[in-house]
Design a protein that fits this description.
2 copies of one chain form a homodimer. Chain A has 376 residues and is α/β, with parallel strands linked by helices. In chain A, 41% of the residues lie in helices and 15% in strands. Chains A, B: InterPro entries: Aminotrans_V_dom (IPR000192), Aminotrans_V_PyrdxlP_BS (IPR020578), PyrdxlP-dep_Trfase (IPR015424), PyrdxlP-dep_Trfase_major (IPR015421), PyrdxlP-dep_Trfase_small (IPR015422), SP_NH2Trfase/AEP_transaminase (IPR024169).
Chain lengths: 376, 376
Amino acid sequence: MLLAPSIQPFFPPQRTLMGPGPSDVYPQVLAAQAKPTIGHLDPLFVGMMDELKSLIKYAYQTTNAMTLAVSAPGSAGMETCFVNLVEPGEKVIVCRNGVFGDRMRQNVERMGAIAVVVDNEWGEAVDVDALESALKAHPDAKFVAFVHAETSTGALSDAKALCTLAKRHDCLTIVDAVTSLGGVELRVDDWGIDAVYAGSQKCLSCVPGLSPVSFSPAAVEKLKSRKTPVQSWFLDQSLVMGYWSGEGKRSYHHTAPVNALYALHESLRLLAEEGLEAAWQRHQDQHWALRQGLEELGLKFVVPEEVRLPQLNTVLIPEGVDDAQVRQRLLQEYNLEIGAGLGAFAGKAWRIGLMGYGAKRENVSLCLKALADVLN
Amino acid sequence: MLLAPSIQPFFPPQRTLMGPGPSDVYPQVLAAQAKPTIGHLDPLFVGMMDELKSLIKYAYQTTNAMTLAVSAPGSAGMETCFVNLVEPGEKVIVCRNGVFGDRMRQNVERMGAIAVVVDNEWGEAVDVDALESALKAHPDAKFVAFVHAETSTGALSDAKALCTLAKRHDCLTIVDAVTSLGGVELRVDDWGIDAVYAGSQKCLSCVPGLSPVSFSPAAVEKLKSRKTPVQSWFLDQSLVMGYWSGEGKRSYHHTAPVNALYALHESLRLLAEEGLEAAWQRHQDQHWALRQGLEELGLKFVVPEEVRLPQLNTVLIPEGVDDAQVRQRLLQEYNLEIGAGLGAFAGKAWRIGLMGYGAKRENVSLCLKALADVLN
């Protein structure tokens, strides 16, 4: 026998999470998650899942029947959208202005479809005109995919304009709302989004690990008309939907992450209680307060003002400042986490999150004072 | 705006879970899960993941470096093994003696590989001789896949013999240990298992949603020599391993399900504290007590005695007894969940689980008394 390792219980400290996610989790959500596990086919659990569906619909502002939470993180939500809707050989125009647009390209290529990449500079919004040129140059494209709120840069793209344009060229749209859901305006039905996915750990302030997704009737139509099976059994939406269906004929697919779904239910319930528009405004208000303080510290934003995400503030690291040391001191001396730069911004920028429960005055104040202390 | 649904907090009852999983969760595990969320790149979290890796290795009795927890349920663990190791066009011998063997076949076929199915009756163990005939008939097969403990039937297969045979024919082995891990003897290194996956929600008595997996050096070799990219970005083990690597150069892949991993850490820690052999024995002891009581009630086991799983007891529903009504009464009157039959056994059998924390005397007694009351 290999011997048992001797390991003590893990006691994480209480941090203030102001990175790009996970964000500070609502105490009510942590408590919800610790409630007794019940069976995933228990009638009471099925009822909870039905409520959860209606809460996800509200957060997305959609009436889409095919709305549920993928039992895995946001990147599995992304993959769910691509592998269900796109078939090998089909063409997808992928707008890329950061890490997550590039992840979309990798998804498309790995599944044997064709990615046409429309590039924008890091920190910019996706350029609507550049997309239009690509759509004209590729009349056989069937999909347009883009990131609504780029977590790697903090830039917000005009999802409504991009979707309107895609529709005009008969393309379905696949939209990454991982960082936008709950933090800025997002209207899936009004804007004509066909497939959307998000993450539980950003502006919903739920624990990480789940991905709410929603497919429009047109997306469902495309799914139903596939000529090839979906390559992934685990992510096959037709099977998963049979499990989430509220029509009394629930069919077993996998075992739902019961306690994590309790947590998502509670976080979305809190969002519904506050109201979406109030939550969007709160993020904006706290962003203004943080912005003013950061500028007083002499820090410069990476993203142009008009497309800046309130929930993710990317600022340039001042000349001569040691990136890792600052973040380490914030963590060790203040229990405060801010995010490092990712990809092209590694070592060059910090990402300061104001997400969900964390978009509040005390977090802004702590961050500003701690940064002021550490930078001086 | 679509209006916010008015939904109350969800308060699940305290059930006793004696189905095929999720099983009763250790109170310490629920408490661990509710600890404060910290960043997934926080040095303290990275340290916790390193401990978790060593705990998974112990539970599997392996020294495999490529050992980690997939951030999704057991069926994603299954898919991880197939999509990383098998390439399109390669041949996999799939032993099928229940629902989960068939799920393996579906995985193989969806990814464009060739499944050769070796069938056994439901309730039987996988037949070693039948596998040998298949191996002789298909000398070009590169993999043998089977389920160690079939959750749909309660039958245990001889993993050691099957793996020895597969090795002799130069095949790598992919083994489903979803229901076996922690409940019956399982020795990944000694038995020559090349890829193995499990679920958090069975004999580990953790919350559902995670899948510990381990790849042998030979499996890693196969992975490295692939000619085609892994079809799934989310499940690509080379990328995921970069995230789990303890060598200080941790690279971002996805956001780990932080709190769920706290839970897995605690459940595996409790297993290590008890000791694997003691846990196996406890499952066996409680099985004997349950078995005696069920037989006194006149219930008959589906699976032959010599291959019966202690942690999952499948009994035939007596003639004239209303399946759904019995399970409903147990749930409503006793807060006790037992499992329905699945697939070929739907409506014909019950599956009574004694898994992990649930493999204890009070559960056996409750189940026997409640069944006696309801059946009379």
